[in-house]
Design a protein that fits this description.
The protein has 212 residues and is mainly alpha-helical. Helices cover 86% and strands 0% of the residues.
């Protein structure tokens, strides 16, 4: 049942899928000529954040345009819990696809560096944090208010990202070097999962009380 709802979401965005795939493949190499120092990290972050939230936003927009469709789906054997959970699964599948496309880019353009494990794990934490706020806020405030709020956040994040990297490099985080990398990465994955589980629970509670 859950995967059928996820499949429904992908069918809604299928005409934008090729555009997003092209963006994922072209953007990181394009950044090499303009900001070679940050092309790998920035390219990976941008394609993932844009792909996940633009496609998720499009699905939510379509569901908002046809509110009776959501009510009908929840009246069928699909529960509200599955309906909410499908949005998280949909987003995480797009995240995994972005990792795959960026991995392909790093093979074709060595200037982007290597994909490794650290970057995908750290970005998983970032995506989990944003997603854990975005979906509960959407179910609480509605599509329009959430769209405006997060468009501002994402645009600000995009322009501020190089400065954030500079600030991060100037911070004294040498104590992290003392930690076992496996523990650090494992802790990040565990923290991401916990954040998502809490967010799912909150979103479900909000959506169960919503009038369809």
């Amino acid at each position: 049942m859950l995967m059928q709802l996820v499949k429904k979401d992908f069918l809604l965005v299928k005409k934008y899928a090729l555009i997003m795939i092209a963006l994922c493949i072209i953007l990181p190499p394009f950044l090499i000529s303009s900001i070679p120092e940050y092309a790998g990290v920035l390219g990976f972050v941008l394609i993932t954040v844009y792909s996940v939230f633009m496609l998720l936003q499009y699905v939510i927009l379509k569901e908002t345009q046809f509110p009776k469709a959501s009510a009908l789906i929840c009246a069928l054997p699909y529960s509200r819990t599955e309906f909410v959970l499908s949005k998280y699964v949909f987003s995480l599948i797009i995240y995994l696809a972005c990792c795959m496309f960026f991995g392909f880019d790093t093979l074709m353009f060595p200037q982007l560096g290597t994909l490794g494990v650290k970057m995908p794990v750290m970005l998983f934490l970032v995506i989990s944090l944003i997603l854990s706020v975005y979906l509960p806020v959407h179910y609480k405030l509605g599509c329009e208010k959430t769209k405006i709020l997060f468009a501002i956040v994402i645009m600000t994040f995009s322009f501020a990202f190089p400065q954030i990297i500079k600030i991060e490099r100037s911070l004294n985080i040498s104590f992290l070097v003392l930690l076992n990398p496996s523990i650090l990465l494992g802790g990040s994955i565990l923290l991401s999962i916990v954040i998502l589980m809490v967010s799912v629970k909150i979103s479900i509670q909000i959506y169960k009380k919503a009038e369809l």
